[in-house]
Amino acid sequence: MDKLETKPIADNNDNNNDFDPLDMHNYRIERLPKRERSEFEIWLARIGAPLALLVFILFAFVIDLPFLQSIDPLSLVADAAQKQYADIGAEAFARSNAYMLAIFLAAIILWMTQAIPNYQTSLILIIALVLTGVLPERQAYAQLGHPVMWLNIMSFVLASMLVETGVAKRFALWFILRFGKNAGSIFLSFIFINMILSAFISATTAKAAILLPIFMVIAAIYGVRQGKGHKNFGRSIVLQNLLNINLGAGAFVTGSGANLLAAALIGGAIGAPVFFSDWLFAMFPKMLLMMFLGYILAMRVFFPLPPEERIPQIKGGMERLRQEYEKLGKIDFQEIKAIIIFISILTLWATDRLHGVSATAVAFVGAIIALLPRIGIIKWNDVDIPWHLLLFSAGAYTLGAGFGITDLPSISVNAFFDNIGIGEETDFWKLYLLLTGVMCFSALIFQSKTMRAMIFVPIAIGVANRFGFPIISLALPVAFMIEHVYVLPFNSKPAALLYETDQYSLTDAFRFGITLMIIGWVLNIVAGETWFRFLGITPDGVFGLF
User: Fold this and answer.
1) Which pTM was predicted?
2) Rounded to an integer, what is the distance from CA 273 to the centroid of its chain?
3) CA-only gyration radius of the chain, Å
4) Quick one: which of 60, 277, 348, 513 could link to 102 by a disulfide (CB 3.0–4.6 Å)?
5) By the 8 A CB rule, do 438 and 456 touch?
């Protein structure tokens, strides 16, 4: 076999021979590559703004939906937030709901077509909810201080701590050198790395940014070259990591902001928190199983490795990673402090049922310690916080506040079931299949996990209330489908980021991703009759499958 010369992987311009793919500073959020839009995406962006404006005008001022006209606002005043509707008539309440629906539809169009940046769409919808009177100013602007927002900020502080101290790089390199003796074991190593990082980092984009340089160097060692065509090793290592980044997040309630938002919505509806341990026991086994199924399908069905791709193709093989690991030297005091904070936060998150301290509060304390002068680990200027993503999330939370105050999801669900003639005696399993299926496959259309959580979790809550089933029996399994966002590049930010590696085609991603998405939905159905029932999430004997 011909040996290839070792050379550094080039960056986007392919001319910078000084680019070090293992220097994680090269993968800060603001330096991540931007994918050029296809002609179809450019066409969508062109029609997005006028289409959103037209839809807003039609639903806000022209189209009168009958199901909005017959609601008594007094019947919906369930809490202090909704008391602004207690003294207005049905007509004014219907107008407020029409504005809410119009703003929602316009925002969805702008987000999907990306006619303008997502954070600008969020800013527009926030002020639109204020100017139309749907939300009071204080409540609309307060969503930037949502607990999930603060958890995201603190998590980025902690993720930056891992990067700056070198702990993340040291662990990843050590793990691969220790257990990655061949191509197969390297892929298995990334399953465990993703699962461990998912327990700590509540931002899938940050995880992708941390892991990207590691698996790209390994891909180069096994003969993969950017711009030289697609090889199965490159396809497999990137798509498996994309899958595992998202599935790992789904194993923990702290795995993403969307999970935490869903848990908060469900907790508010049932009057009790959804604990870290509740989510962990339900989802960790399923997500770990799916990771291994993804590994088997990639290696045996979709991207089997030819003999020459099973062994290192570069002179020295894994020695390149060993040299990088040795350059780190002995573990220093800063890394030890970072590890202590890391383990302490994981412990407190895992035992939240015992001490009752929220995940946000725990992350707050950890970030404060990491930032303390002299005794801390990281300086504020070294923290990598993507504020544009946080503003985008703030808009989604504000939209959710609008849904909460108008009760539009429940009103719409009731109208839908009334119109299609589904009676109150509908079987639980039919509702379970419908709601979890819609939540799962909506990921093919919606770009934001937060938005899907904001839309479909309240709908599941409303359906459970309408048909007299426990809220948690429908809402939690729906929330468990949030992280299936790995089929197409626009389905999530990690998907868009890893598509930039140019290691696979859209067809590769779709064939592999849609198969795992269907498997994920089927496993959720099976778990509803078995594991979820054992945990007390779904009622006994309502499926009749086993």
Assistant:
1) 0.69
2) 21
3) 24
4) 60
5) yes
Q: Are 392 and 448 in contact (CB under 8 A)?
A: yes
Place of tokens 């789904």: 250
Q: Residue 171's closest CA among 56, 324, 20, 369?
A: 324
Please answer whether residues 255 and 202 qualify as being in contact, where contact means their C-beta atoms are separated by less than 8 angstroms.
yes
HEC states along 33-44?
Answer: CCCCCCHHHHHH
Instruction: Dig out the tokens for 504 from the structure.
Output: 């696979």
| DSSP symbol at 63 | -
CA-wise closest residue to 106 among 150, 49, 186, 35: 49
Residues 149 and 196: their CA atoms lie apart, in Å, by: 22
Query: What is the per-residue burial (b if ≥16 Cβ within 10 Å, else e) of 6-18?
Result: eeebbbeeeeeee
Task: Return the sign of the alpha-carbon dihedral for residues 456, 458, 463, 469.
Answer: positive
Residue that has been written with the tokens 């969020």 in this structure: 122
Token reading at 96: 């407020």
CA distance 282 to 274: 12
The predicted-structure confidence for 213-235, as pLDDT tens digits, reads as follows 677 777 777 766 655 557 788 88
**Residue-by-residue DSSP string for 185-228:** HHHHHHHHHHHHHHHH---HHHHHHHHHHHHHHHHHHTT--TTS
126-130's contacts with Cβ under 8 Å and 24+ in sequence apart are 126/394, 126/395, 126/398, 128/103, 129/99, 129/100, 129/103, 129/398, 129/399, 129/401, 129/402
Cα separations (Å) of 157 from 163, 200, 354, 368? 10, 12, 26, 9
255 close to 194: Cβ distance less than 8 angstroms: no
Q: Which residue has the tokens 């691969």?
A: 176
Look at residues 479, 436, 405, 420 and name the one whose alpha carbon lies nearest to residue 136. Answer: 405
The residue among 332, 257, 312, 314 whose CA lies nearest residue 8 is 314
Vertex 189, ends 532 and 151: CA angle to 5°?
A: 60
Reported residue count of the chain is 546
Check: CB of residue 394 under 8 Å from CB of residue 126. yes
Rounded Cα distance, 202 and 91, in Å? 43
- Mean pLDDT, consecutive 10-residue segments, the chain of 546 residues? 36 45 52 60 86 93 76 51 53 81 88 81 91 88 80 78 80 72 82 82 71 73 64 87 92 83 81 82 93 94 82 62 82 88 80 77 88 84 76 78 76 72 73 91 78 82 85 92 86 76 82 94 92 87 49
Q: At which residue do the structure tokens 């662990």 appear? A: 171
Phi and psi at 136, nearest 5°, equal: -65, 155
Among all chains, which residue has been given the structure tokens 């099976």?
Answer: 526
Report the SS3 class of residue 126: helix
Q: What is the pLDDT of residues 128-152, one digit of tens each?
A: 999 998 888 888 888 888 777 787 7
Asked if 49 and 239 count as a contact pair (C-beta separation under 8 A), the reply is no
